[in-house]
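Quick illustration for those who missed Monday's session on complexes.
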Amino acid sequence: MVGQWAAYQNEIYLQGLAGTKPPFTTDPTALEDAAAEVLTPEALGYVAGGAGSGGSMRANRAAFDRWQLVPRMLTDATERDLSVTLFGEQLAAPVLLAPVGVQSIVHPDGELATARAAAGLNLPMILSTASSHTIEEVAAASGAGPRWFQLYWPNDPDVCASILARARKEGYTALVVTLDTWSLAWRPRDLDQAYLPFIRNMGTAIAMSDPVFRAQLEKMPEEDLPTALLRWVSLFTGVDKSWSQLAVLRELWDGPVLLKGIQHVDDARRAVDAGMDGIVVSNHGGRQVDGAIGSLEALPAIAQAVGGRAEVLFDSGVRNGSDVLKALALGAKAVLLGRPYVYGLGLGGEDGVRHVLRSLLADTDITLGLAGFRTPAELSPAALHRAEG
Ligand code: FNR
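Prediction with FNR bound:
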């Protein structure tokens, strides 16, 4: 099989001839158990946990199981090209690294390791506002790699403007505004361990290094950390915004703006009407609203309603290559990978992230070909069967 990414399969088998096995599992569904061996109970609970009953996480996976690929034969699918163009940038594959905060709780290199792995594969990393390293440090680690910035919308307009200006200056091209986490959900795994990384000064590097945030404090965080942390919490949580306020962000960002957390068709339409360049159909990996619709269930109607007027991206529950293909077939232009790469980071830093990404892309590439397709653009709902029940 000829495909840029499929080559990882041969590489693994050939290394086996020399007695070497892959350092980490190639089964994305086994990553959480592997990571459980190396992560602290607090970090594991924070990454693996969800809102309330965990029902939304289960719904995310169940939604993928309900759709099934219908393989086609003799389609000359030997040579394949997974690249896609998003906002004028050519990506090596329709996969981005989802914004995930506080990565230093799983590995000391945190976002820096993730940035290096993503850049090496020419996949965009979406840097979280809740990063454990600064915008500038992660940009330096990313080098010439593609990078986007995710905004947790601060309740102070001056801090907001300052953070966005820093991100723009450091070469982050697209802005992903996360709407579903203006307040933290009820998360039993974290609550039972009384664990919230932010109030322990983890995942706060971007604000703590921000000149406007610092200027608003009476004492610098280095002198009075608890007060600075309280200010951080009040800046990023507790206040919902409204559609009319989006215009402000548009003025502060001269690149593409996407809204993340969209699950309702009407919200998708509103995003388009508000002039947004894209949306991310996501339920935050089941971490925010318990008992919610599986994210993939929401995708087809949203993609139809958007009708090509904005880019539609997808996340929540993507684990295997077939999941990537199903989301693309149902109307997503690209998907965001979340927890699996975070487990890779915990298991092996930059190498672990690279392994997880290469495994997912090899699986995607091989499965695309075996299903009878050569490019993401060839996928449509006609490639799928909806299982009964
Ligand atoms: C997240 N996610 C997230 N999203 C965001 O916009 N900003 C953030 O800082 C974070 N932080 C974060 C931390 C952790 C530990 C997880 C697991 C997730 C949500 C993330 O971007 C994405 O929507 C989900 O990870 C998708 O679900 P799965 O596929 O990982 O289950």
